[in-house]
Amino acid sequence: MEYGEVCETEWGDELGKNISTIEELKAHVKLSPREEKQLRKVIERHPMSISRYYLSLIDWTDPDDPIRRMAVPRSEELVLAGSYDTSGELENTKLPGLQHKYAQTALILATNRCAMYCRHCFRKRMVGITEDEVIHRFEMAVSYIREHEEINNVLITGGDPFILSSETIGRMLEMLSDIEHLDFIRFGTRVPVTFPDRIIHDDGLLDLLRLYSDDERRIYVVTQFNHPREITPQSISAVDSLIRSEVIVNNQAVLLRGVNDDPETMAELQNRLVAIGVNPYYVFQCRPVKRVKHHFQVPLYRGYEIIEAAKKRLNGHSKRFKYIMSHKTGKIEIVGIIGDEIYLKYHQAKNPRNIGKFFKRRLNKTAGWLDELDRI
Description:
Blueprint: H1 11-15, H2 22-25, H3 33-45, H4 52-55, H5 66-71, E1 93-95, E2 98-99, E3 105-109, H6 138-147, E4 153-157, H7 166-177, E5 184-188, H8 191-194, H9 197-200, H10 203-212, E6 218-223, H11 233-244, E7 248-255, H12 263-275, E8 279-285, H13 293-296, H14 300-311, E9 322-327, E10 330-338, E11 341-349, E12 358-362, E13 374-375
Parallel strand pairs: 3-4, 4-5, 5-6, 6-7, 7-8, 8-9
Antiparallel strand pairs: 1-2, 2-3, 9-10, 10-11, 11-12, 12-13
Helix pairs in contact: 7-10, 12-14
């Protein structure tokens, strides 16, 4: 069967054909004995899983291909600089699988699995490894949300909730649908990017989304396109299917070294997203995650230069995103740089009194995170 002919009942079987071993990877790229030894060490700690679709986007003749960087393990993942919990998720966990950091938002970790294990994942500590942080009794999360009327939206994420069965997703939506103080429900998923057939060939999922997304309470899909080459006929079709199912699609890109860390690529990405009906939402500063920070994080000063240069190439709709650092204290917008000072603003905050707070730090050219900036 050629790729793209997957029947709607077979998408789970297709995921079973993901590239997940060094032996399977060696069919596509030549590895020296040293490289092979290093990559085996990497995937012993952080598994590899690449959908055949996403594999088809890689230019194997280019060792620095941006798609390859996001999908294929590298020896740089052996560098342990950073933290596995850069945003304080543990301290905001109210029960296994449910986080409540910001007053208005409940976050549910629905699974520890994804259609592809991105090498830059900020939940590298759990994805593909452990189910300890995943929700096991969804009704407990629903009870918590029902009891906290300040919560007006729920983000279902993981892992990737769209690799769950449509029946499971339907039960989640059914249980949440009668909570009157919820204004909308979000799914955080990279499936439109890494495995679009899950959406294109499953009318059951689309019917569910259409059923629960109406004129009084919308379903949002927050996805993550990071490079223009991820925008393909298949991913466009997946996005279009979601939009036709009354779903609003937003994009949260991550600024990644070697992937999109130049103004031309970033501008092309945002312009093409708007063209296919996806709303630019955030561009995240790459978090200082262990086995990620060393080779993916761009310094803040350089990140700001890239974003501002990209915005000069964008129209009003494609420059609506904010350049954000998702810190343990809140979502911090990188507002500007004057001389050796960087100006910041709390777009969202764990402490409500900090929301909207404007502040500055002393800038240095190696800092990639708030904690590396000196107070003035």
